[in-house]
User: Fold these one by one.
Assistant:
Number 1:
Amino acid sequence: MNREGAETFLRLLAEAELRDPALLSPPAPRSPDAPVVAMSAALWRASWALTTVGALDAETAEAILADVEFALAARHRPEPAEAGVIGWAAGPAGLRRFATARLMSRSSRRRPSEPSPRPSRAEAAGPDRYVPVGLTILFHDQAISGELNVMSYAHSVSGARFTATWRARDPVTSRHHGLPPVERFAVTDDRGNRYDLLFLVTGRPESSCDLTLHPDPPPDLRWLDITAPGEQAVRVDLDGPAGRPTLQVNDRDLSAGEHLLNRIADRMLTMVPEFPSRVTPAPLSNLGMGLGAAIGALEAAEVLSKLSPVPGRLAALCASLGISGHGITVPPALDLPEPWLSMLSHYHRRRPDAAPAGDGFAAVAAALPEFDGLRLVLLGLHNCDGDTWMNTLTYGQLPREQPGPLRLDMAFPLSIWVRDDAGRWHVARPTGWHDTGGEAMLTLRLAPPLTRACDRIEVRAAGRSAEVRATVPLRWGERQ
């Protein structure tokens, strides 16, 4: 990694921006409360790429960007404001403080090189058990009714929990109403011990939850009986076969720059259904702006080879999605990865979403091997309102949330793809997680959604040093 080359590249790019003739003419009239002239996307994106891969420290990047923003603002400073009006009358020192404060707010989050204090799985002693469940527990009384669809049971270092989807409604009007009354559920194990259920939705989408057992049960439970209000007991068999996926582990040797560009491509593909072009092309185009400068910065930092095929593939992806203004100078590549081609084929159909996925849940419990300092455990998959969600646990040194351009979260360092049994690929995007001390509850959203006709999936989790492919059976249930 060439840190000196990274800083030199960014400073030269900043100087080139200040010499840009387009910036010599005064901009359109601006409001007094918005005095700072925005810098180019290329400069900001190059800075973001260098700090993301650790080639440039955030303080140096902030100083360079603050100088540019101050210079641009001072160049276009309007006439002094009238007495009593807060604006440009504060002078250059005030402008610099304003610009620097804005830039410092961008880097107030933890950087990738500073992981959160989390013990590794090798250091964490305790039980480690994952069981697919696939049962529906109904509940009802005079005030509320509904169902819990239990996908999996996990007993890890932080305790025992069920992962479930849920729906509650008013029995008179059938409208959604309140939360499941889990505090009134009776839970008993095979030895007569009783437990409370704690309802937690943090880190999960609104349609799913975790139900933690308190106190912590013994690690060798054979079954649990769960009795909901107004219903008979439902026995959860924990002696069934554990989730043991068919695994294939392949070594990889991706540079930090290639991995970053692949993550950007993943985000582009997930954004297509979120922001369809018939509505607005702006978000996709915004994500593509400045990519050429980012690639140049990564090459200058020697974290991306000039011979790498990834920039050409990214250029081809931009062309396929109609993204212009990206600034990538290498010609588009012809050899796109199979998952990208599958996604593009889906989106380019005339009516790609003519048959939306119906609601349902699948029992899954499968642990993937550790690599790149992380370990994933799949704990259920469900469809809700046309979306597909995969619930997981994550072990390892996972940095805190670091939103990038258009929620490109670089704190989660893996690229996750799912292939259904018809050969179609789906990209998985992290939508949030909850740190419980030693592990995180992480939810992934699949695009496009998965249909209930799928009986088996292949999950591909790829980092810089390795790629894990796990074939997992799905046992679908349905909401009542």
Note: The longest helix spans residues 256-274.
Number 2:
Amino acid sequence: MRIALFATCLADTLFPEVAKATVAVLERLGHQVDFPAEQTCCGQMHVNTGYQRQALPLIRRYVETFEPHEVIVAPSGSCVGSIVHQHAMVARRQGDLELASRAEAVAARTHELSQLLIDVLGVEDVGAYYPHRVAYHPTCHSLRLLQVGDRPLRLLRAVAGLDLVPLADAEVCCGFGGTFAVKNADVSTAMLADKMGNVLGTGAEVCTAGDSSCLMHIGGGLSRLRTGVRTVHLAEILAST
């Protein structure tokens, strides 16, 4: 199968290893991965901060870039959540009904990594080996917008050598929330402290999730406290052999 990769801004600017790991997993499974070079931001940041009109060109760019592709994947529940739940809505509100229709069609072919692997490719064991004690944090957008459910857990349970430990209050937000962490720093920090306490309570070596944004937030806190606990994206674990 030919699969187009939407790398996302964070992978492009800060965490390129996540995009590379996504490619590695899919190629190991025998699929061809295309990277449309015209891709840019999905526009989520603009929409979430009230700049819907400014987001419209980014939505149009996403649609035009990925419209030729039948299957699209992104290693981010947050970005896929925006594509699925915001793109057509914003286009419709801005009066571009034709773009809204096209956006709905492209969104229907866009998948978060765990959804693609399990729902589209029918795979749970991707042949990974990761001999570490791991806690999984289900990010808000993947959990609530995309409803990925236990798909990431099923993938992690199939990884050889991995000891998956339960995380207390796993479904509680880590406090990042994009610009929420900037505009409401004190509340965000308090939420992060609770999440870090629960992660440390597991005795895990690694905290994983399907969004680099949340891992950046959690990882920053764990690093500042010098806990020794690392944050690793789900794609990187699945790419390990």
Note: The chain has two domains: 2-120, 133-239.
Number 3:
Amino acid sequence: MKRAISGLYAVTPDIADTPALIVVAEAALAGGARLLQYRNKQAPATLRLAQARELHALCRKYRVPLVVNDYLDLALAVDAEGLHLGAEDGSLAAARAQLGPARILGASCYDRIELALEAERIGADYVAFGSFFPSSVKPGAVRAPLALLRNAKRRLSIPVVAIGGITLDNAPGLIAAGADGVAVISALFDADDVGVAARRFSALFTVRELATRHS
């Protein structure tokens, strides 16, 4: 199910209650999320496996790729459509070799264009920059400047995703600067209505697509 990386990229919060996780993940997918990343830094391996399996079944229902954060073995075990790696989470080249050409491979590049260029050379399908804004999930994360998105769009041929403290208020500036997708955790899953929040994020990209067609 390899496809263009664009739009709302929903990243799951750490929720140990699997039924509750499925409820909010389905709301995000029904609201228009184009990708779902399973990210859980706290769960034991057995819970990660169970949750990833259920999320993958849900993603197939909505025909949306499931991308697993960090754990190559988990991505392979549940036959996920993709894997996302940070700079210290393993070798991109080794991951590409094991994933094969059909699965999605994403890479965190923080505020460093050189990491993105290397990731593209190795075979990443997209790169993620950030944190662009203060983030409650990663309060100590390095901050990336908005100009990095413009630079990346000039120098890369693969999609660029923005992450870190993204809200409905600040996402339009990132999209205008060239972000193909926005990865969102808190502003999506902490919303009073996850489905409504997902639709609002998705609508930001619809506006851009319409403007591009008429430009």
Note: The beta strands are 7-11, 35-38, 66-69, 82-85, 104-110, 126-129, 160-163, 181-184.
Number 4:
Amino acid sequence: MRISEHVQEMSRWSEAQRRDGRRIALVPTMGFLHEAHLCLVRDGKKRADRVVVSLFVNPKQFAPSEDFAAYPRDFGRDRELLERESIDVLFHPASDEIYPAGFQTQVSVDKLGLFLCAPHRPGHFQGVATVVAKLFNIVRPHVAIFGEKDYQQLQLIRRLVQDLNFDIEIVGHPIVREADGLAMSSRNIYLSPEERQAALCLSRSLGLGACMVRRGETRERVITEAVRAEIEKEPLAKVEYVTLCDSATLEAVEAVQGTALLALAVRVGKTRLIDNRILKPME
């Protein structure tokens, strides 16, 4: 496995691979890898000849009040995990490689950046769009793979690629869950044993919503109220939002018609967790 810390070196490697006719897959991460990340890597290996994993904790997607400094990091462990997966390049740039002195350009995806998490994390999606656009230009992948747990991020990146004419296939990988249903996340490490148990209310409430739709309930108000009530049974959980929205535009809907996204954000103790589920009538 090659470790590249510099933009020019990474770009030269990618250009050489492209000249030789090899297809490149990119898996962008912020490190502290877990099984869900490795599933994305394995997906990339099926879709391309070469796999690049980027590891960069992006300061521009953290608000001043958020956990940038405390965000979990373990480069040695991440490197070992990726070596076992036999990836081709680990791209691990320093912050000043991505944002050199004088950097002042931002990328915004206006409408998709208004919903769900956006009001609670001002500036987050601008930071995401900016760093992803930079990674695409540096690595020049043919395909990039993102997890569906961060569903709003995935849709935002799809729009970015379409609007800016990036010739990149964007793949959404299904949510990877623990055996008990909790969506895998690097932030799960913040949870105490009691909070870890309490966090199961997220997947449990999504299951309730899906069950209601299968039984014929399609009204947004009825579904979201039931889901919220299920979460609020857990004393350690505080609902940030429960939303039923269009799965493509993320705009709120009044009923499940065709495909809808049930999305939620919940604080369990001090840890903010997100999860979602696609709902279809008579699923």
Note: Residues 163 and 184 are 30 Å apart (CA to CA).
